[in-house]
Amino acid sequence: MTDAKKPIELDQLVAANDLVGIRLWLAEHPPYEIADALTRLPPQRAIIPFRLLDKERELEVFEELDPSQQQAILMGLRDSAFRELLEKMGPDDRARLIGEAPAKIAARALAGLSPAERRVTAAILGYPEDSVGRFMNPDTVILHRNLTVARALEVVRAKGSEAEIVYVMPVVDDGRRLSGMVRLSELVTSNPDTLLKDLVDVFTPRVYATDPAEDAARLVQEANLVALPVVDSEERFLGLLTFDDALELIEAADSEDIARQAGSQPITGHYATVGVLRLARARAVWLLLLIIASTLTINVMQGFEATLEQVTALALFVPMLTGTGGNVGSQSATAVVRALAVGEVRLRDLPRVIWKESRVGLLLGCMLATIALIIGSLLVGTAVAAAVALSVVAICAWASIIGSTMPLLARRIGVDPAVVSAPLVSTLVDATGLLIYFSVARTVLGL
Amino acid sequence: MTDAKKPIELDQLVAANDLVGIRLWLAEHPPYEIADALTRLPPQRAIIPFRLLDKERELEVFEELDPSQQQAILMGLRDSAFRELLEKMGPDDRARLIGEAPAKIAARALAGLSPAERRVTAAILGYPEDSVGRFMNPDTVILHRNLTVARALEVVRAKGSEAEIVYVMPVVDDGRRLSGMVRLSELVTSNPDTLLKDLVDVFTPRVYATDPAEDAARLVQEANLVALPVVDSEERFLGLLTFDDALELIEAADSEDIARQAGSQPITGHYATVGVLRLARARAVWLLLLIIASTLTINVMQGFEATLEQVTALALFVPMLTGTGGNVGSQSATAVVRALAVGEVRLRDLPRVIWKESRVGLLLGCMLATIALIIGSLLVGTAVAAAVALSVVAICAWASIIGSTMPLLARRIGVDPAVVSAPLVSTLVDATGLLIYFSVARTVLGL
């Protein structure tokens, strides 16, 4: 990679207010690296190097930024520069920016647009948040199915340089209904007299504008598409979801799932620029619910206080047992949530998943019980050790079943399976695991 | 999406051995959906519908499968069909299949190839596993920098239909050194007399064949590339990492990180077809290490046995405290591991990350301590409740610091930060958290 070659970082140059140095740095770096460096600066400082960019590269850098960073940059621009930048943006990026901006910026932005661009933007904003309509790009070359290859290439030559980069193009009928897609490379290599309708692939996947954006992005990935056509309810072509937007959607979805798996709410924005308060807020909700839920463990412990007083050694193993149960349950939950996310498991697989995970849990439980038996025998004697070992088997099987079932049940009731986080499973397994432990101990020890 | 339209599933048709039905089903579905359905069948059954595919679609479906599934299919084919399929595969897919296959299949595969194809495959296999060299496609149209646009288009017409789908092409000098990339759409829309060297972008990112594949894939995403050129140490062009392979690499890397975060080893292959033993093995290693590490909690509890006997109520809060500490630590660890994976945090940010996370932990700790104080006062009285509440503050701050520091330290010593899993952090915080709790309790209660 190119990382080793740049000893001086942009933030140092900005801190030193070295305008000549900044200009040089900008000239030597590609747009995506400039955008990355701007992201690491505090918003009020990012405007300094941004203003020094030459006009052609300004847009490319700007479109690489997060909506929140774009807002900060826009706030720092004069009115004319503000309008110019927005007018040049791709309609999908612009709509996303305006959709997420505070009302004041959104109004200023819409007011500054030309009527044509304002119409396109408003149309995109009409689709529900997180629908693919919000992410599609309507700005592409559209070809009629009765064109010949030679005529189609003329259309591309005439319009191609204004539109977004063209790799594939929609082919439509008289009613603008999508017939299929044609690749530019097919046009270049095909006989000039061939009609487009004879070239298009009958299996072209398509999505409706109101479909969830994440599902559409996963389809782009599954079907290896450079761009997925988006249509309205009457199959009329509306725009393209391109591979780069799909990649971004998948990365964002994975980041969200990962955050949820740890019991955090997803935060948008760059880790480096997110404040302490926002981070704490994202994590607080689940922690609060879980500490309240963990009151159950106190109740269980209180219910068995007499047992604990008779055999105080039982208390020693509580952290080990709750820890192990939590670990096994988290593993199952994480595996099933991921399998659901990438489409490897579906709702109707529920019985098979439970059957598989309970066997996995039982197997792991037997293995861990052996260790627990050895550790327990060495530290407190065989009777308590036997109770602990038996509990480990039961808790592991139980934790696997809980961990694997809950994400599928969440999906069934229409909740994102990723909310079945490792901490949630651990907390549930803690209380029920203790119940199992003390019941087993009472039986084994004859109390 | 198209899901609602297919009431009959392929597995039902295969189970009923309904060959006519299978043929019909295959004709009605695109290759990526066929591949998905084959994946859900047991390997020895997947060969039945695969043999019924028509020749043109066979390859497309086959290339969509995982290497392990490809092996199972190959084993079920006659020698001639086996050779024909391998010869038609893309060199990168073929190399990956052979690289991961058992020696017997690999030898049979290499032996069946034509000398030219065998050379290309062997070259790809020469690169280290997980390097981008293993994933690049050498089969593309290469253009000389002194060509005109018109000549270049003739080259594309002559060679374009044999090579992989062409969206962008490498432009090289006499020594095959990469000058940059040119898009097919630029060729189509540019003046025919322009020289390619005047068209190529000076900022073309490139990677070396030995660079890690995941880093290259993230670069494809960051720079929105349809294909990233791969060069050797002398900057000579070797092949392209295309967006679809990058997408697959990122999805696989995310799946691996997610599995590691839950304390599992990543498994390759589809969840539905992975056996119980393999799942258990992937999860066993960490569980074993962690249950042994959790012996520390027993030691801590034993060390404070006298305190526990004096105030038995202290034992009641052990699961709540270890649970909360684990949750807070997991959140920090997960956030930092993800920020590292997507490049939002780098090693040199360590002090800033610790400073940020410790403030987040302290804030969350104060909030949770309030709840703990209320719950504790209601259940066991204010003295013990005060000890619990103070411990919550300290444990949360400590857990955040542990959780955020460890992934960065792992990166520093060259270990994948994702091995700093939620269960690992929880287990470490369990023992140290108990130490904090009993020390605080002794001081507060004056024992």
User: What is the CATH topology assignment of the largest domain in chain A?
Assistant: Tetracycline Repressor, domain 2
Q: What form of chain A results from the Cα inertia axes? A: elongated
Largest interface: A-B, 118 and 118 residues
Percentage of residues in DSSP E strands of chain A: 5-15%
Going by helix content, strand content and strand pairing, the class of chain A is: mainly alpha
Task: Summarize the structure in words.
The structure is a homodimer of 447-residue chains. Chain A has 447 residues and is mainly alpha-helical. The first copy, chain A, folds into 3 domains: 128 residues, MgtE N-terminal domain-like (MgtE N-terminal fold), CATH 1.25.60; 109 residues, CBS-domain (Roll), CATH 3.10.580; 152 residues, Tetracycline Repressor, domain 2 (Orthogonal Bundle), CATH 1.10.357. In chain A, 64% of the residues lie in helices and 6% in strands. Chain A is built from 22 helices and 6 strands. In chain A, strands 1-2-3 form a 3-stranded mixed beta sheet. A 3-stranded mixed beta sheet of chain A has the order 4-5-6. In chain A, helix 16 runs parallel beside helix 22, helix 19 packs parallel to helix 21 and helix 20 packs antiparallel against helix 21. The longest helix of chain A has 31 residues. Chain A starts with 9 loop residues before the first helix and ends with a helix. At the A-B interface, helix 3, helix 11, helix 12, helix 13 and helix 14 of A face helix 3, helix 11, helix 12, helix 13 and helix 14 of B.
